[in-house]
Amino acid sequence: MIEKTRHIPDGKKERKNQPVSHYLEAEYLYFPTTDLRCPAGESCVIDGQYVKVGELIGTRHGGFFDQPIHSTVSGYVVGFEKKVHSSGQTVDCLIVKNDKKYVLHESCVSRTDEEIAALTKEDYIQIIKDSGLSGLGGSGFPTYVKLETKNKIDVIVANGVECEPHLISDYKLILERAHRIIEGLTYAMRAQGAKRGVVAVKKKYPELYEVLENARHSFMDFDIEIKRVGNHYPQGWEIETIKAATGIQVPVGKMPSEYGVCVFNVATLYGFYRAVKRRMPITERFVTISGNGIKTERNFSVRIGTPVRDLIEMCGGYTENDKNKVVICGGPMMGTNLQSDDLIVTKTVTSLIVLDEEPIKTEPCIHCASCVYSCPVDLQPVQIMNAYKERDKDALAVLNVNKCIECGLCSFTCPSKIHLTETMRQAKRFIRK
Amino acid sequence: MNYAKQTAPYVRKENSTKRMMVDVLIALLPVVVFAIYQFGWDAVVRLVLSAVIFILGEVVTTFYRTKPHPSVKERKEKFKVRFKTLTINNITAPLVSAIIYALIIPSNLSLYVVAVGALFGILVVKAAFGGLGSNIFNPAAAGRVFIGLSFTSQFAYTGIDAVVGATPLGAAKDALLNIPNLLQNYTVLDLFLGNIPGSMGEISALLIIIGGIYLFARRAADFRVTLSTLVSFSVMMAIAAIAVNGNVVDIVVYQLLAGGLLFGAVFMVTDPVTSPVTKPGRWIYGLLVGSIVAFIRLFGSYPEGVVFAILLANIFVPLIDYYKWSKNRYSVKFIVGYVVALALLGFIVLVGLGGLN
Fold first, then answer.
1. Secondary structure tally for chain A: helices H, strands E
2. Are B268 and B138 in contact (CB under 8 A)?
3. Are A311 and A36 in contact (CB under 8 A)?
4. B3: which chain A residues are within 8 Å (Cβ-Cβ)?
5. CA Rg, chain A, in Å?
6. Where on this chain does [4Fe-4S] cluster 2 bind (chain A) (predicted)?
7. CA A190 to chain CA mean position, Å
8. Do A378 and A315 form a contact (C-beta atoms < 8 A)?
9. Is the model more confident about B175 or about A297?
């Protein structure tokens, strides 16, 4: 309809009441040595070597950064195998056979408060670099690169909005680890020399506000505020979160650090806590298996490296009908479509959604402009679509197609069911040529 | 089990073009019922005739526009392929146009003329441009203008004062001052309820407003175009009233309620296919329609002012939507431009009616 679409039926109400199963029984765990950002990688262990939880087993090499890989279980290294990564690529994975003892590596000893108080900015960067922490909101961008910024950071925003439908991993994390997230936030503030910290959570979850508010009282030395922001989509998009949490308007295409803001996902801040206080990398995360193509929908807390097939099996497998299954890693608005369920839980895997394929019949565009009204970056998807049909590069450039964040709202809202978001992607590829 | 190939997003909103069209039909229902109540079989016959022509024209042209793959040779197979491309929108969309078209013609117009206008609307204005979503002119308005210009003699409005013309507005040109007298024949309440002669659907302001409220509440139409049309029109008329030293309230209210303005503003300019796609663009579009209607009423003699205005404004839509300046944000430039344009047009009205003398 002709209106600004902001709300998407998210199914979180049902999902958040479901219990979380802690799954530690995976026989083999897989650690990708390459991924989308890091085309090369190597392992520093040999077949048959015994590794422990938190032990360095390899490094991924990106263009301008390295990411260490840590084992999340104890057991023996048993070789390599090709598995599917959350980006949809097939990558080489190092396999560790789980002995289910979960022996901690010797290096994982907690830092005392005095030690932490003595840390400098360089120390923090080194600690985060060694822990292999990356943006756990989904970007997977190495966190230490963000810390290295030359700009003066005044305020750190903890993004706990998680606006994608179906996902509840940040929700569960805040509920269970609020205290540690706030502690992680204080470390991030110290590392960046920021005066203020703001935690953004959705208005409709007062329970999150309360646990965070309680946790905040343990850190009265720091200026931390818990901010309840809007419930709409895409509130979790960096720029909207900054706007809602601090009132600072960052133009699209600019780095938030230029405006004195730095955004971390709450899961990343939990990673800060683990790295700084415990000297541990992230070893576990919440994963939701949902969708109408799966027999029972369940939430899991699993070790990173767990094959998703194990989890699907625990959910009772796929529903049996003759429909094709759409397998999605991530949320239903921006997730990646997989052509195999041989997926490995990496740091950025938040959920697996399996949907029965429904044919979507497209009608002609009637210029209702719902897509124009709904676009969070003020683009005109319908005009971009027409310009792309004409292969008009000038028009596409003037219409700023590169600003598109691919949030999916234009396709979602179209009454004629035209797949505008895919057209935006094609148009972006086209003008890059 | 097979894996389906799709790209994000994987969920869609529960809406459809069909629902939008059906909403417009529901909004039109009270007006249609009232037309039938007022004009009886005359209305029914004209409504049915135009519906049949519009739907048949749409279905047949869509049917033959589809080109089956060359590998499909057999006649029966070709028919099947073509048949599959037809959707419910090939019924609802022309039905909307047909009902609007039937409601803006007088109840006693000869059936032959009704058919010619309907054929022109669906075949030339809609189908020739590529069917649903591709037409640049409003089919109903174009059909009405076509017969209005080519069968002028057929538009003999019986039972109405000759001065009054199509609707009681023909009189308004040189008789803005005469409006208080006119109001003695037709009170504001009569105009509001539809107790006046005129085209079938245009006469009851109340029912049109009810339909409009439904449309806007269901978001099946954009209120911005309607609002902009009515605001700019009222401003023009107020200035005209000042220019001739008339009663501003009387003249504005009369001009708003009489004639096809309200019907056009609610059901015709809101047609999304022929509207611009940005919010400021829709305001500009409404301004164009509203001011052209005002100009035709003040300085022209055509009773079809509203449909003319819509067709003329349709021409400007690609210009308003030109990618180099179309923006969905209200900028200061836009607001200033809108106000200045309104003031300028108002000034022309003032001069034209001798308000400066």
1. 14, 17
2. yes
3. no
4. 324-327, 338-340
5. 22
6. 375, 404, 407, 410
7. 24
8. no
9. A297
